[in-house]
Amino acid sequence: MEKISESTPGDQMPSRRGFGYAVIYGLGALIGAALAIPAALYLFLPPKSRKQQSWVEAGDLSQLQPGTPQEMTFRRLHADGWKIYSEKGTAWVVKTAEGKVMAFAPACTHLGCAYHWDANKADFVCPCHASEFALDGTVLSGPAPRPLDRYETKVENARLWLGPVHQGGETTS
């Protein structure tokens, strides 16, 4: 009787077929990881917020007369991924007799229509639904539910800087 030698798998030389399977499984694992890691990062990490300028220069206040609103136009930069674009904005700016500056967002608080300054009535008028607002943004008449929305403002060297918009009725600086 012939004795068959018992051998362990570690004693055998790997075959070509076994090496091929190892290479294929290894490449499959690499491809799976290359697909799974970005997907996991997308699902579990919060996205970066879109960047925009927090303060933007609106204009020169030296020509602004107290008690007479003036519409100022400015440009605000937005970054969306790799693309940076410029957005045109406006604000109604009022200087009080005490020198305080208020800047109002250009949309009526009723339905977002554009309002204008009526010098004859000495108030802001929304032509769409007849809302009227006082010089300080409070509602005088009409269906508008709250005062005009305001920009945060700061003045540096007679230049007006506008910040974020706050809903009418909130306190702003």
Determine the strand fraction and express it as a percent band: 35-45%
Q: Average pLDDT, to the nearest integer?
A: 84
Order of helices and strands: HEEEEEEEEEEE
Q: Could you give the count of β-strands?
A: 11
Strand arrangement in the largest pleated sheet: 1-3-4-5-10-11-2
**CATH architecture name of the largest domain:** 3-layer Sandwich
- Determine the structural class based on helices, strands and strand pairing: alpha+beta
How would you describe this structure to a colleague?
The protein has 173 residues and is of the alpha+beta class. 17% of the residues lie in helices and 35% in strands. It contains one helix and eleven strands, in the order H-E-E-E-E-E-E-E-E-E-E-E. A hairpin with a 4-residue loop joins strand 6 and strand 7 (123-125). It is elongated.
Compact summary:
This protein has 173 residues and is an alpha+beta fold. It has one helix spanning 16-44, and strands at 51-52, 56-60, 70-80, 83-95, 101-104, 116-118, 123-125, 132-133, 139-141, 150-156, 159-166.
Keywords summarizing the entry:
17% helix; 173 residues; elongated; 2 domains; four-stranded antiparallel beta sheet
Question: How do the helices and strands line up, and which of them pair or pack?
Answer:
Layout (H helix, E strand, L loop, with lengths): L15 H29 L6 E2 L3 E5 L9 E11 L2 E13 L5 E4 L11 E3 L4 E3 L6 E2 L5 E3 L8 E7 L2 E8 L7
Antiparallel strand pairs: 1-3, 2-11, 3-4, 4-5, 5-10, 6-7, 7-8, 8-9, 10-11
